[in-house]
Design brief:
It catalyses: D-glyceraldehyde 3-phosphate = dihydroxyacetone phosphate. The chain is α/β, with parallel strands linked by helices. Helix content is 36%, strand content 17%. The structure holds 2-phosphoglycolic acid.
């Protein structure tokens, strides 16, 4: 089996207590299912900042959902790369469509953060994806090409980034892109970036569809929201529902 990177994106869910509960459930489920989890699957959780310290030195990667493109200083409310590294964070989700939609995160901002992450040795997971209107108007590839060009400007080594293709119409809606659509766009992303880049698919990934999606040639992992919130469901993602 090829190497896969599966990351749970918790968004703004789970307080400290709920995170502790998840971790103890996850540990039990992991031990019970260990034989079924392929060693080639690398996995992690993108938790809210307040819970990241609980993920330090655990079996999964600790992932942030955002960070500042500045090093340090007078930026009230921001969290820097070095603060995250100190907590053991090794990856950061950037340009998620919810950040683009609700927090005005433009390609330009995503680009600054991507370069900052690479500089700081944190792997950026750069999200791209079209809206429903763009999809229906047949503009998917144009939209993705622009997002890639602008968000990844100046990136020289694509082994240092992960790209997540997340069609906005598939996020949290239960409407997954078919494996064919997902493969077609992920192959387009590879052609427009680099052969060696890790490309994830995201948008209503669940235990029932993960195996088919992950078997596509140009899909190297998944960014999973809803189905990553419960330990038993998260484990089923890692066993590819076996
Ligand atoms: P979903 O979210 O799996 O709940 O659709 C995916 C994401 O937003 O990364």
């Amino acid at each position: 089996m090829k190497k896969l990177v599966i990351i749970g994106n918790w968004k703004m869910n789970k307080n400290l207590h709920e995170t502790q509960e998840f971790l103890s459930d996850f540990e039990k489920e992991y031990l019970n299912n260990k034989r079924k989890i392929n060693k080639k699957i690398e996995f992690g959780i993108a938790a809210p900042f307040t819970n990241l310290f609980l993920l330090k030195d655990k079996i999964f990667k600790s992932v942030a959902q955002n960070f500042s493109n500045f090093d340090s200083g007078a930026y009230t409310g921001e969290v820097s790369a070095s603060m995250l590294k100190d907590l053991g964070v090794s990856m950061v989700v950037l340009g998620h469509s919810e950040r683009r939609q609700y927090f005005n995160e433009t390609n330009e901002v995503v680009n600054k953060k991507t370069l900052q992450a690479i500089k700081e040795n944190i792997t950026p997971i750069v999200c791209v994806g079209e809206t429903l209107e763009e999809y229906e108007a047949g503009q998917t590839k144009d939209v993705i090409a622009k997002q890639l060009k602008e968000s990844l400007a100046g990136v020289e080594d694509f082994s240092k980034v992960i790209i997540a293709y997340e069609p906005v119409w598939a996020i949290g809606t239960g409407k997954t892109a078919t494996a064919e659509i997902a493969q077609d766009i992920c192959s387009f992303i590879r052609e427009n970036t680099s052969k060696k880049v890790v490309i994830q698919y995201g948008g209503s990934v669940s235990p029932s569809n993960i195996e088919e999606l992950m078997s596509q040639k140009d899909i190297n992992g998944a960014l999973v929201g809803g189905a990553s919130l419960k330990a038993d469901s998260f484990i089923k993602l890692l066993t590819l529902n076996k």
